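Summary of Year 1 activities. Much of the first year was spent building the evaluation harness for sequence design. The harness presents a backbone, in tokenized form, and records the residue chosen at every position. We chose the following record to illustrate the format because it has been used consistently in internal testing since the harness was completed.
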């Protein structure tokens, strides 16, 4: 095709997306796309909370029985053993319940070819539905949860001669987690030299980001040195950039032998400069050391040099 004959086509216009901050990261939300949650029923059934899971199962079970009750009701004399000469809707509904659950009391039974065919279809569908719901319930029940407790604040104070960002983790289950790994990032709005605004993630290098065994508590430290993205940033700078500290955790549950994940975010208002965590280790005379979890989020004034 000659250059003069080329036609430029533009992509179809898409509806505007609304941005919503979740966990320190902006995600796109399309209010008009309400069907997106139903396009992947497997993900939906695993993602909803337990009350929603049982509610969806109950609603689906009721609708399915109502549908087959209408089919049975189309043949007024298709079910034998009913009280009257013709089948009432309630009788058709409970006959569907018995068929779908393979109960078979014997009082109701098919009496016509049409009803036999509908019973055949419903029996097959009942086997599939029960298998799917059992699998979904087992997947939800057997899914491991991290139960990792993150500190409500992060602190910045001098440690070994350097301003250091610190936050805490605790294992609520008190069960061993193997190969625990933590990653931390600074999420902040920045502008390029051309004036473009961008939400950027800067990795925060930790003094120790891995632990072969994680049982009780863990204090994570990020030294604010020349390579740190926090170098030279004041609390006002962090607030102006809507900065947040993002933390992700992963490990292996030693009991279930399955990977577990957790994440947390701390806005700039919860990063306390010139504060330090209260020591959780307590000495008791004649009893040795103990951990006081009441001090997990407690802080006290602590010297902090300028990070600039």
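For this record, the design step produced the sequence shown next.
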């Amino acid at each position: 095709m000659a250059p003069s004959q080329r036609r430029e086509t533009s992509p179809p216009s898409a509806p505007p997306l609304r941005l919503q901050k979740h966990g320190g990261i902006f995600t796109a939300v399309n209010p008009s796309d309400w069907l997106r949650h139903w396009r992947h029923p497997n993900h939906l059934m695993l993602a909803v909370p337990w009350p929603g899971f049982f509610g969806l199962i109950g609603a689906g079970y009721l609708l399915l029985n109502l549908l087959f009750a209408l089919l049975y009701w189309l043949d007024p004399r298709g079910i034998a053993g009913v009280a009257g000469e013709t089948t009432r809707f309630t009788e058709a509904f409970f006959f569907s319940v018995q068929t779908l659950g393979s109960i078979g009391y014997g009082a109701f039974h098919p009496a016509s070819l049409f009803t036999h065919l509908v019973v055949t279809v419903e029996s097959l569908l009942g086997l599939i539905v029960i298998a799917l719901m059992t699998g979904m319930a087992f997947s939800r029940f057997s899914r491991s949860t991290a139960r990792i407790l993150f500190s409500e604040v992060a602190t910045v104070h001098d440690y070994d001669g350097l301003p250091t960002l610190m936050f805490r983790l605790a294992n609520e289950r008190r069960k061993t987690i193997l190969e625990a790994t933590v990653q931390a990032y600074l999420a902040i709005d920045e502008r390029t030299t051309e004036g473009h605004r961008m939400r950027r993630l800067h990795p925060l290098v930790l003094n120790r980001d891995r632990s072969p065994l994680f049982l009780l508590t863990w204090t994570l430290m990020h030294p604010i040195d020349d390579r740190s993205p926090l170098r030279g940033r004041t609390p006002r700078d962090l607030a102006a950039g809507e900065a947040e500290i993002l933390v992700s955790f992963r490990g292996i549950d030693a009991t279930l032998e399955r990977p577990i994940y957790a994440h947390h975010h701390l806005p700039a208002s919860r990063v306390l400069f010139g504060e330090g965590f209260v020591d959780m280790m307590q000495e008791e005379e004649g009893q040795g050391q103990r951990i006081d979890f009441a001090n997990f989020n407690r802080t006290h004034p602590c010297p902090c040099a300028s990070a600039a």
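Residues 6-12 have pLDDT under 50 and may be disordered. Quantitative recovery figures across the full test set are reported in Table 2.
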